[in-house]
Amino acid sequence: MKTDTPFYSNSNTKDPAQESAGTLEQLTLLADLSQDFVMSMDIDDILIRAVKRIKSYMDAEAASIFLIDSDNQNLICRASAGPVDVTNMAMNCDSGIIGRTFTSGERQMIIDAKKDADFICHVDSLTGFQTRSVLCTPLIIQGNTIGVLQVLNKLDEQLFQTRDSDILRLLATPISLAVQNARFTLNFVEQKRIKKELTLARKLQRSLLPNRVEPPFPVVGTNISANEVSGDFYDYFTLNDGTVGFIIGDVSGKGLDASMLMVRASSLLRWIGKDQLPPGQWLAKANKELCEKASRGLFVCAAVGYYNPKTDVVTWSNAGLPPVIFKCPQCTIETWNADAPPLGIKASDLSFQQQSMQLKQGGLYLLTDGLTDARNSDNQRRELEGIIEDIKNIESESPEVRIGKLITSARRHTLNDDATVILIEKRDHLQEKTLLAEQFNASACELKQIRHKIMQIAEEVGFDQPCCQQIILSLDEAITNIIRHAYKNIKDGEIELKIKKQNKTLVFYLRDFAPEVYDSSIRPRDLSNPLPGQMGINFIDSVMDSWEFATPKDGYGNLLIMKKEIE
Q1: Residue 498: beta bridge partners?
Q2: pTM of this structure
């Protein structure tokens, strides 16, 4: 970039009083512009105020400000003052005198515009304005040119002087800063708006997830989102004859469009499922409804079915999800691939087949591809084989522990997509006993008493002293995180702790009533670069056999579930 001509007077004999008066006028103009800028963060309002003042101060017939568009292709007039309003006029960023100013980053003072090779005369032809002389200066912020400030035609047939060019350059700096500040403010407001919308969408989605039902209810499910809002969903419900319906789905795409389709699809599938249609017809009806109302290219992978506790038979149909997995202690793994494409792609000529089997002592796993697509440190996918291997290793544990461990295993990988799993299994054999139900203030003063009660329970169920201490430290870390981070400056927060024994598993339910957290952002840290105060989750992850976040039954606050097998 060339060096601009410094500010100086054309005459060496200029009256000092006149120079002082001119300097005072410049300072007054700068003060007036600054005052205008702090009165509004509306970028168009700021620029309109600026060009009006500059036109008047410069004794010019017209003034305008052009800013580069978001694609860096065109300069758009954002404000103009004069006999012709050229606001919103666009030109290529390398076209005309304005384009030359922008690309060169140098001031331009044109005494006779018609003799300049870059003068665009057709603008005068369209507007009727007669351009005689031009003065332009680039708007530069942090070394980047963001636009051009232009004044046209000195009044009373006068010509622009070098002093005018220097003054315009002086005025360009606060205008550039004002534009940058306004954009920062707009971006901040937009980010706050998007965050608010995402929070509302997240709350709506979580409200649609089913409440956890105590054993022996035959369906257990959970999910984690890779982003703030999820495209996955699951649901289950009981019909009048005792049959249990279940749903699991995965909406394509990301963001609010996908989340809104998730809400629509989950509600639609639940509504149709209450009619107790065979699973194939259930999906066919949902597919027709989704295709009739366009979803902007989005589609839904889903599986639905029923479990009859009286006959111990489960029947399901799968449209586009990963294979369904069955495992029982006495048999090998069985899988069934989806035999139909996702919903919402093709309205006619689609049939949805269904499968059925008696569960006996086995469990049927249905999952979304977030589990199979989770990547390890070498960026390798887990694939279906990885999920099956996990299921084999945990088959002797309770259903709650099994799906908890599947999700915990997914957390230890990099999630590229939301991960959801449901398990259908007869659970009459599950014995559950509540050992502690305590609600206390979110205060460090309460920790001593809580530690004592946890120690008593851990000892009573048979854990040795080192293991008891690890359990206490895990709960201590979790409660401390709630006090420090969830409640922050809230002094009257409440925490609820329940401890249950489920067969040979001790389950800790730790619930707060603080604003919800996004569970996808909470995972073990990289141990190669530990930071102070950030190792609590790593400790919980190493001590507990599984842990997960779930939705409290009333949909408010956060629920952390941790499970430890009793040896």
Answers
A1: 437, 509
A2: 0.59
